[in-house]
Structure formats: C-alpha cells, structure tokens
Amino acid sequence: VQLVESGGGLAQPGGSLRLSCAASGFTFSSADMSWARQGPGKEREFVAAISWSGREEYYADSVKGRFTTSRQNVKGAVYLQMDSLKPEDTAVYYCNNYPSTWSWGQGTQVTVSS
Questions:
Q1: What is the dihedral of CA 7, 75, 67, 35, to 10 degrees?
Q2: How far is the C-alpha of 104 from the C-alpha of 114, rounded, in Å?
Q3: Exposed, middle or buried: residue 93 (CB in 10 Å: 0-12, 13-18, 19+)?
Q4: What does the pLDDT look like over 52-109, one tens digit per residue?
Q5: Measured between alpha carbons, how far is 96 from 79 in angstroms, rounded to an integer?
Q6: Cα separation of 98 and 78, whole Å?
Q7: CA distance 95 to 35
Q8: 14-42 pLDDT, tens per residue?
C-alpha cells in the first residue's frame, strides 16, 4: 500500500486549500478512505472519511461544514477540500483507509496563518 498526500501549504485564515491523496497497491474502489491530521504537540485525530462508493461521508465536528471529502475511483485518488480555514487547522494531514489500519504516509503540511 502506498499513500501519497499533496496540496498542503500556507493559507490565510478564511482561505481554502485542496488536498489530494494518490493511493496504490490495493483495490482502491473497494476501500473506505479517511483523512486525519496531527497538529503541533497534539495527537493524530480523525478529520473525515468517505465510503468506497463515495455516497457516505463522515466528518469530525471541528471541520463539519467547512471541509468536504470526495474521491475518484478511476484515478485512485481521494480529496479534501478545506474552506474557511482557521489557525487551529494547522497540522500535517494524512490519508489512510477507514478505519485507519495501514502505515501512515509522509502527510502534507497545512499552515493557516496571517
């Protein structure tokens, strides 16, 4: 299994970023997928999940209404659209299956600051 996250960067409060996760080494179209994050000095926490079909989505309360996850099974990719970003969203973001049982990738750094 290989998971490669990208799309992170610096954003201003209220701004947006779109993260991507390229997945390979397994049958992507059959896997529920998730996003997690680890902020500075914090434990890794669940952010969002999406079912294998894309029909069901789940979000942490802290991001509900601001973040949207989606996927493209033909591309083996899952996405996290992050809007109305807040400084507390600053973290390294990771994708994984759901529940998260695979080894974590490198993640992508998101920094929200003015």
A1: -80
A2: 29
A3: buried
A4: 999 999 999 999 999 999 999 999 999 999 999 999 999 999 999 999 889 999 999 9
A5: 12
A6: 12
A7: 4
A8: 999 999 999 999 899 999 999 999 999 99
For 85, the 3-state DSSP assignment is coil
Q: Cα–chain-centroid distance for residue 38? A: 11
Contact 13, 111 (CB under 8 A): no
Neighbouring C-alpha atoms within 13 Å toward the C-beta of 75: 9
Band of residue 12 on the pLDDT scale cut at 50, 70, 90: very high
The tokens of 34 are what? 């998730």
CA dihedral over 84, 87, 89, 94, signed as positive or negative: positive
CB count within 10 Å of CB 95 equals: 30
How many Cα atoms are found within 13 Å in the side-chain-facing hemisphere of 105? Answer: 23
Cα–Cα distance measured from residue 70 to residue 81, given in angstroms and rounded to the nearest whole number? 8
User: d(Cα 26, Cα 76) in Å, to the nearest integer?
Assistant: 10
Tallying the residues shown for the chain, one arrives at 114
